[in-house]
Specification:
Structural class: mainly alpha
Strand content: under 5%
Radius of gyration: 19 Å
Oligomer: single chain
Number of strands: 2
Length: 163
């Protein structure tokens, strides 16, 4: 899939500087976000939408040793890097947090136990009442006000990690 992605993205990126040379940095960023990375331009990613998922993909213990996670933890420990994993909440509904299957809840609990048993900081934002739907813009992205509020609360909630 890397080759396919490169073939589709490379021409646009190669032409981009010439096409946008007259734009200010702010206009350029707006163009990039509204044209290249607009939701309708992105490929569907239903395979990663595991909110209602079940089955082998959500069996943490069966998959962890085949993943990069153990190597990431090993390299971080070897290098003296303090890791933190933050599971950001997906876009909530008007009624509250986004739905998630029992299998996904078990997966996240297993991930948390695995990370914490290795001294890695883990925090799950799912169900955070301080991140209501009104803070979201499109998809899972926060709006401008939401970004500021979220960042301030993030720094407060996780202050002990940054010390």
């Amino acid at each position: 899939q890397y080759d396919r992605t490169r073939l589709s993205a490379e021409p646009a990126l190669t032409r981009a500087p010439a096409n946008w040379v007259s734009e200010t940095p702010s206009e350029l960023l707006t163009t990039i976000n509204s044209q290249m990375f607009a939701l309708d331009q992105l490929r569907p990613f239903a395979a990663t939408d595991l909110a209602q998922g079940t089955g082998a993909a959500l069996e943490f213990a069966a998959n962890v040793d085949r993943s990069l996670l153990p190597e990431i933890l090993r390299l971080a420990e070897q290098s003296g890097i303090k890791l933190a994993f933050i599971r950001a909440q997906r876009r909530p509904t008007e009624q509250g947090p986004p739905p998630q299957s029992d299998a996904l809840q078990r997966y996240v609990a297993d991930l948390e136990a695995y990370l914490e048993s290795r001294g890695v900081y883990f925090y799950d934002d799912w169900g955070d009442p301080d991140t209501p739907l009104s803070m979201y813009a499109d998809g899972d992205h926060l709006n401008a006000t939401g970004k500021v509020r979220y960042t301030e609360r993030f720094a407060e909630k996780h202050a002990r990690f940054f010390q």
